[in-house]
Amino acid sequence: MKDMKAKILSNEEVAPGYYRMVLEGPYMAKTANPGQFVMVRCGNDTDPLLRRPLGISRVRRPAAPGAMTMELLYEVIGRGTEILANKRKGETLKVLGPLGNGFDLLPCVRRPASGAVLIAGGIGVAPMIFLAEEMARKKIRPVILIGAKTKKLILCEKEFKRIGAEVHIATDDGTLGRKGFVSGLLQDVLRRTPDTRYPTVYACGPEPMLRAVAGICLNKKIECQISMETKMACGIGACLGCAVETKKGNKLACKDGPVFNARDLFRRKA
Amino acid sequence: MKMDIKIGKIRLRNPVMAASGTFGYAKEFEGLVDLKRLGAIVTKTITLKPRKGNPMPRICETASGMLNAIGLQNEGVENFIKEKIPYLVKLKVPVIVSISGNDIKEFCKLAETLDREKGVDGIELNISCPNINKGHGLIAQDKEATRDLVKSVRAVTGKTLITKLSPNVTDITEIAVAAEKAGTDAVSLINTFLGMAIGIDTRKPVLGNVTGGLSGPCIKPIALRMVWEVARAVKIPVIGMGGIMTARDAIEFMIAGAAAIQIGTANFVDPGACESIIKGISEYFRGKGRE
Fold it and tell me: Fewer CB near the last or first residue (10 Å), C or N of chain A?
């Protein structure tokens, strides 16, 4: 983990309100794991004061270390991310990371025949591209379930298809894919899977979605890893502001997480 | 003004300390800041028994500041001694342990326990956390209660004693003087201001605890004024803090009369803050060549 200045190589709007920023960074690219995040200083002033935690959405590691990059996919939701959206190519940002405990690929590496299902709601798609690409490198072809409010906000479908993943989509308004929630797509997948070959599930998105996904997985005893989004001040376990209640007591999203096992976070549904 | 100073029995190589609650137990900042260069480290407040802390959300950003209502989450003194002290000792930087309790007895028990620990150089009495004891006043809001507490703790420990004061009072000098008379070696100020934030969509308080402590650069002018007032009212060293982000901020506090300063919220924004402030202060001193 390091705090460093990173040069912006590009910063583009990929869907209304969603941006992709590419940063120069051999250190981050080499050391980051899927599910980890960075703390980004958005402005140079005291307002907004705190850094913003952003999930790492991809790293590129070409042979030349100078060409290594890290990508951040983010949604503009407040003043911090608004300032970020206005940053131009060539500017630099203070970036602290990589931080936190990412996804554990072992459960699906151990059972290659069962594979993995990656579920993303809204901006929750960010860590999933990194995860899917890492899986592809390990010859695992994940099934991707993406949920969003409407067609225009479905992110990264192309990127997932490029690595040969099977992609299913759900929109709240039915403008693309199945009308309804992404958790419905998971039920479809499980319905056509024999229970001896249930996949490992990885999910990131809004809390109601995570709750629904965890409920389904816990009932069927499916290994399910969940990335939690919380407000953070420091990102390194000092402020204790990002505590998450688990069955093992309070844990920190920044240090113990952001990825948790669903069985530690949620109860089985009756 | 000089870099190396003495507070109680503690010799500091520079006047910059990491403030309690913003620096964990130092290990969190390993690799991000040269810990050996710090003047002192004040650890996250510990209590006799483990504390779960307050419900979420616990933090909220405000204009040039932040609110927190962590509620003194910690693993308790036993765990602190076993798990945290061995690492802190290795840094060879003065370790000041912040403590809190429900009553005088708990403060004394903690102080007695820590008094036996070689790795502990000083104790900071956190009698000013605004996020516990809801509905009751803080010890630091009552000069008699402050005097009684400091006197009792003073009787059970020979370690350097620092009393941390609350800004949520009418006259902070009264409390400072009470602590001085009761035998504290120094006072540190200020703790956070009690504040709140409301979400207009939910029409509810943002923090799980409803209210929280305000910190960051937005409180600096008030903190500075209080440090100036207290420095004129007591003879013991005053440790100033409140919104210090840069060496310039720190120097203002020292000109106002602070013997040392603590860096709090700035550690969240820039984990290397303490180090760059130390560097800035030493450059200023060299340039001025005073004392």
Answer: C
